[in-house]
Write a structure and sequence with these properties.
The complex is a heterodimer of chains A (299) and B (263). Chain A is mainly α. Chain A contains 12 helices and 2 strands; from the N terminus they run H-H-H-H-E-H-H-H-H-H-E-H-H-H. Chain A starts with a helix and ends with a helix. In chain B, strand 9 and strand 10 form a beta hairpin. The chains are: A mainly alpha (299), B alpha/beta (263).
Chain lengths: 299, 263
């Protein structure tokens, strides 16, 4: 039981980096970017092939992160320069990335890196921990670095203009900010984290799969939603960032429980979709209920 | 100084909905001019503001500020010169950000925003506090409140402060009190006047209210069908009455709207 709990936490912190990426677009920039499913797998695929080429695994992580960034940059260009709605731009990139990811993996659906040295095997060596615990450690370290980085960035003059772009685009443009560039930057940064997360998952699982990003966007949104249940009252950005990773850990714990209850891992797609729907629909239901109650008391 | 020369703008060219919004508009604002702009719906007031702010590109003509040709500048580049307050109080501020964060955003209007400098320092905080205190709305004690918790009037007062916290070469007010109740509207308008007079800000104020157009500013222009049809300043403007303006309006093809008569 403890083992599967720790396993879920390990998955949670690694995917949590992806959730931080989704947080940037979905929560800060107010842009629904669906590149995720593709760029996550791109990060993983790029990591696998670079690691197989005997490149230093830390550099492989950085290359995978850049690859994710390129995916985001393309979506950003489609959205800001070609004026394609963000959702469609993301879907188009994601669709195209499927072909590209297959090419990266050498036309194979999955590629194993079982006997390759990675950051996790390095950490496992250093700390004498088993592979999955060392993976959790890597996830925790990277998540903390990402949270600190994002928190610092958002408090700067430049970071404030990112937040303002998501909050009131017309206003910040009237104050001299090129909001197209801000969105381009934000979507790129978001997908860099997503690619990084995908690469870490490949380290953890010891193989890359072309379909590994399937449903990632919904997992991410569900994680953000779950985190908000616990940290709704906090407006501090550091806590909200932490809340996303925390939500992701809880998501994977729920997933472990669901599997233990006899459902299949694939059922999680449906369950997470339902979680997101409930979270998005809740405010509307609440409002309707409040209206009905008011109507009743007036009558 | 703002200089507009031979500006034309037509919407939906070649269709049945073709609409000439600006026709050979020429206008020069001298430094320190406070100009009120009136005109019926569709007279071209908003289009005039939009071509100045960069939200719309004119078909032809030239727009200069301080001798710099800004006709081809995108909206965000013109922000360096222009401070704006919109009609909708929701549009001028970032509602999910604090009051002081909004002011900090405005403080950097038209400047580079560094990723290596915190947006708020103690110095700035003190400065913002003093500016807010001048509004007399008690907002200096609520610097860390989100703007969405404020009333429309308070938000509009903050937007006004944001537009002027770094003195703009041109301040543009687009019916900025139209969405407020009469009492709040007059409070915000008085505040506007105080700030403009104190800093001698060159201002273009669009209004639907004839009395405000007469009472405020040193110059008044009236627009109709995309043209400036009346331009008064100085003593002549001081003697102007609502009746005079109504007479002018009735000479135009567009009858004034009820709002203008009641105002």
């Amino acid at each position: 039981m403890l083992g599967s709990l720790l396993g879920a936490i390990g998955q949670g912190v690694i995917w949590g980096v992806m959730v931080l990426g989704i947080f940037i677009t979905y929560k800060i920039l107010n842009v629904s970017d669906l590149t995720v499913d593709g760029s996550f797998a791109t990060g993983g695929a790029v990591f696998a092939v670079t690691a197989l080429a005997n490149i230093d695994p830390t550099i492989c992580l950085i290359i995978a992160m850049m690859a994710g960034g390129v995916c985001g940059f393309i979506t950003g260009l489609l959205h800001t320069k070609c004026k394609i709605p963000a959702i469609l731009a993301g879907i188009l990139t994601q669709l195209g990335l499927y072909s590209i990811n297959l090419r990266i993996l050498g036309d194979k659906a999955n590629v194993s890196i079982a006997n390759i040295d990675t950051n996790i095997t390095f950490l496992a060596h250093l700390t004498n921990l088993p592979h999955s615990r060392a993976g959790m450690l890597l996830g925790i370290i990277v998540s903390i670095i990402c949270i600190i980085f994002l928190y610092s960035l958002l408090g700067t003059e430049f970071g404030a203009s990112i937040r303002a772009t998501g909050n009131n685009e017309k206003m910040i443009r009237a104050l001299g900010v090129n909001t197209d560039n801000i969105k381009l930057f934000g979507i790129t940064l978001s997908n860099m984290l997503i690619g990084l997360s995908g690469a870490m998952l490949v380290e953890m699982n010891k193989y890359a799969d072309v379909g590994m990003g399937k449903g990632a966007i919904v997992y991410g949104l569900a994680s953000i939603v779950i985190g908000e249940v616990f940290f709704r009252r906090f407006s501090n950005f550091g806590i909200r960032l932490f809340s996303s990773v925390f939500g992701c850990i809880l998501f994977f714990i729920i997933r472990a429980i669901v599997i233990r209850l006899g459902l299949k891992a694939n059922d999680m797609q449906l369950i997470s979709a339902i979680i997101v729907v409930i979270a998005l629909a809740m405010p509307i239901f609440k409002e309707n209920m409040a209206m009905r109650n008011r109507g009743a008391s007036n009558a | 100084m703002l200089k507009i020369t031979n500006v034309y703008k037509t919407f939906n060219v070649g269709t049945i909905n073709e609409k000439r919004a600006l026709e050979d508009v020429n206008l020069t604002l001298n430094d320190g001019d406070f100009v009120t702009v009136i005109g019926g719906n569709g007279a071209g007031k908003s289009t005039l503001q939009n071509v100045i702010s960069g939200a719309t590109t004119p078909d032809s003509g030239k727009i200069e500020i301080n001798g710099i040709d800004i006709t081809k500048f995108p909206e965000h580049k013109r922000a360096k010169y222009i401070g704006r307050v919109f009609q909708d109080p929701m549009l001028g501020t970032a509602s999910d950000m604090w009051i002081e964060e909004n002011l900090a955003l405005a403080y950097k209007r038209g400047e580079n925003r560094s990723p290596f400098r915190w947006m708020i320092s103690n110095d700035k905080e003190n400065q913002f506090k003093m500016s807010l205190a001048k509004l007399g709305l008690g907002l200096e004690d609520r610097m860390k409140s989100k703007v969405k918790l404020l009333s429309g009037g308070q938000r509009q007062a903050i937007t006004l402060l944001m537009a002027t916290i770094k003195k703009p070469d041109l301040l543009m007010l687009d019916e900025h009190t139209a969405a407020l109740d009469p009492k709040t509207a007059s409070l915000v308008l008085n505040l506007t006047n105080e700030i403009i007079e104190l800093d001698k800000i060159t201002t273009l104020m669009i209004t639907h209210n004839m009395r405000d157009a007469i009472n405020y500013g040193n110059r008044l222009i009236m627009m109709d069908q995309g043209k400036i049809i009346y331009d008064v300043s100085g003593d002549e403007k001081k003697k102007l009455t609502v009746e005079d303006l109504l007479k002018k309006f009735n000479q135009t093809k567009d009858a004034p709207s009820d709002a203008m008569i009641l105002g």
